[in-house]
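Job type: complex structure
Entries:
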Amino acid sequence: MSTTTTAITPGVGLAPALSPGIPHGAARLRWVVADALTITKRNLIAYTRTPEALFFSTLQPIMFVLLFRYVFGGAIHAIPGLSYINFLMAGIFVQSVGFGGIGTAVGLADDLQKGLIERFRALPMARSAVLAGRTTADLVRNVLVLLLMTGVGALVGFSFPNGALGFIAACALVLLFAYALLWGFAVIGLTASNSETAQVMAFPILFPLIFASPAFVPISQMPGWLQGFASNQPIGVVITAQRALMLGGKYVPGSAAGHVLVALAWSVGLLVVFAPLAVWRYRRST
Amino acid sequence: MTDAIEALDLRKTFGGEVLALDGVSFAVEEGTIFGLLGPNGAGKTTAVRILTTILAPDAGTGHVLGYDVVAQADQVRTLIGLAGQYAAVDENLTGRENLTMVGRLNHMDRPAVAKRAVELLEQFGLTDAGDRPLKTYSGGMRRRLDVAAALVARPKVLFLDEPTTGLDPQSRVDLWAMIEHLVVEGTSVLLTTQYLEEADTLAHQIAVVDHGRVIAEGTPTQLKSDLGATVLDVGLADEHLANRAAGILGSVGTKSPTVSGTVVELPVDDGPRVAMEVLRLLDQHALVPTTFRIREPSLDDVFLAITGKRAEADEDDATKSPTDGKRHSRRRAPAGAGTTSEGGQR
């Protein structure tokens, strides 16, 4: 069928459209990057237009810092010789980027529901741009949230026990993990039929992973049957590696490099699984 | 000469059972407006989604300016613009930012996009609102911006999927004027609509679709020639009286009257003159109408003329496999008025 029409007459006699033809090679790659940046910019603008959403989503982790620092902290015997706030910050970081990721799922579900993704599909843009742009924008948001949490933590006594470099390395690690997690949230957002569903789907997955972890309470204070899960599930692993980096070997037993390697493996592993899955969902979502 | 759009025997079934397109074919000549007219669930949007590369057909082919919509989807996307039923624009961005985003995703350079955005905001009467987030726009403004966004890259072929559904009458007329203007500039347009009036006003050629099939095709004049120029609606106190009145008025109009609930519908050529005759006849038989109306024929009337049944918009219908016997039988439930397409009752 299509062989009869292959590019015999197409384009002939037409005034040149403003849209150029389809490039290949390096030019094509420039398109892919430019399109992803265009969508990133769009999502970042949206965040600035809904400051209340950003405010309330960061308010929760701030309240957790204060709650655990001043209300529960005194009752939790975390690490001997270390103040509780220094123990707490790694947990707060993961909690912030974890719950913040719900926004990724909700945003994508919303774009699908409102027909925006339909419009994108009919444009000559790179197919990868919607997901790449969304996850990049949310990574930027995570950087801002971590900065804010660091400020709040420092105000209530966080003292960077392993120095600035260790702290920065811990932040880099949690950002990598957060980025992998965002692709998981993208899968949820593209699977849910609407943004409300995306939200309620994401919550019960996240909640046990964050609270059944060493985020707020040391593993040794949990019942035996829970300890194995809490220390080996991805969020538990990342928190331990973060502590190894931001607190130092004095407070975290075992090799710091070992902890970090396991956390890196989890992060890369999740990314390798979730990114293709999200792309697959995106191609199928109509 | 290459057609702007060519659909050949398009077929699409959703989830293995919902038949959306059952072999749709049509061709849109360059520089013309083609109207796909039909009720909700007829398959109009599915046809548009296939021809704009969003959806792949199960069978059949689509071409835009000679390019295959599946095999050459990338090329097709550089040639088309799409404005959908649901105003697919980003609420958090301003009008100008929305247009800029679409232009950049069409790989136009920044100065060209900026210039084009100014032009389009002006053309669609949105200059003053251009730098406000869309959240503050009215429904009509959003729809205009949606159409403007479809035009950023100066597409050769424009798809408008029910562009005026839900708009107030003035916004609708404004948008019609803009669409007509585009064709003067050489754009080809595929327009889907539930409104006969809209297809009549804008389209050079119309295909009427129902249950995923083209059931009639022609110019607006050809399609309406079967109908009278106007329709008389005569309401009576109950169904029994309505049926009696239909019997009495049997030979007054261009076609025999139909009864829908308590209303007798009578297609006529010469509304005012026939109206007098109808009232005289009713009076002779001591029948008193409760309502009396002269109106333009609607999509519903076209459907009735072609298929012998009302246009149905309910979801269930799309899921049933339409058997021919059913489609051509006269199914006129007494409560028919309640189940007919809203589009038919402007």
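Summary: The domain at 5-219 of chain B is CATH 3.40.50.300 (Rossmann fold). Confidence is low (pLDDT under 50) at residues 314-346 of chain B.
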